[in-house]
Amino acid sequence: MFDDVLICYSNNNKPVGSYECRVRDDEPDVQGLFVRTSIRSLLGEIHNTTKLEAYLTLSLETISQIKVETILMNGDVMEKKCSIHLIENMYEINSSESVNGIIKSSVKKQLPKLGSFGLITESSDLIFQRLLAKFPPMVPIEVIGLDLDCNLTTVSYINLGERNVFVGDNEIPVLGIQRTVHSQRSLPLSWQTYFMEDGHMVLRIQVGSPITIKVNTIPERFRKERYLPRPVIPNVVLNWEDDLELYSRFLDRKDEIKAQYLLYLRDHPEIYDMISDFIKSLLLRKPDEVVKYASEYFKSFSARALPGKIFPMKIV
């Protein structure tokens, strides 16, 4: 169905790892969806690897999910593993933590399927958020999910609205979704994820984390199958300059647009001040790329601009 490949960046905007997400609906012998994610990062002397594989139904019900997180630090290998399997009408959950291959803790539990109706696991969340980005909720919504210790908890989703982000030298519109896991045993954890219109993830930030996940190139948009052939529209050449009626319409429309522009400038005298300030700034700074500088300058007046102090404006 889709593949997302992003880069992990540190606070000083240096690449420190990678993020990959793959969802398929054409796996052999699988009636549903196959989800696989992988996150690798190296921050200082801490090497972190997280892998997740899951099988879902088309209604996003989790059939099985296995998540393994490995941390290599100071020569020690710490591993945290959690597996979820749907067996008949029960979810069997096994979680364990080990250090250098020695199991330090292990927990097994069962959750009835009826008691966890509508359960959104970490794997089904990857698709659920893309549906929310495609059909943004007007109000915050809450679902039943699992916290980091695989306990039932409440997970909330908030529509962050539309923003513009830079990918390389291009600025693209995205829509943000904030996911918060409200654990009963620890502080809430929040992620802010931004998606393109077609569902590609371009930016993800975990609140409080020193790592930001973002793309470095604009993903290729999903191609929709065409069930009808593209209509053939003949190219009609209009010699409008030689046609008195068309030329008269052109002049009338030209005067109409010009009058609208002049009327707008008369009703908004602050535009002259904005242009004057921009020209002064342009003469003072003398940028090499005037168009790019103008885009950055006037972006501060846009309500859709992404705050630079919270989310990086440019991806290099």
UniProtKB/TrEMBL annotation:
Residues 1-210 form the Ciliogenesis-associated TTC17-interacting protein N-terminal domain. It comes from the Eukaryota. CDD domains: DD_CATIP. The keyword Nucleus applies. GO terms for cellular component: cytoskeleton; nucleus; plasma membrane. Pfam families: CATIP_N (PF21772). Belongs to the CATIP family. PANTHER family: CILIOGENESIS-ASSOCIATED TTC17-INTERACTING PROTEIN, RIIA DOMAIN-CONTAINING PROTEIN 1. Plays a role in primary ciliogenesis by modulating actin polymerization. This is Ciliogenesis-associated TTC17-interacting protein. The lineage of its organism: Eukaryota, Metazoa, Spiralia, Lophotrochozoa, Platyhelminthes.
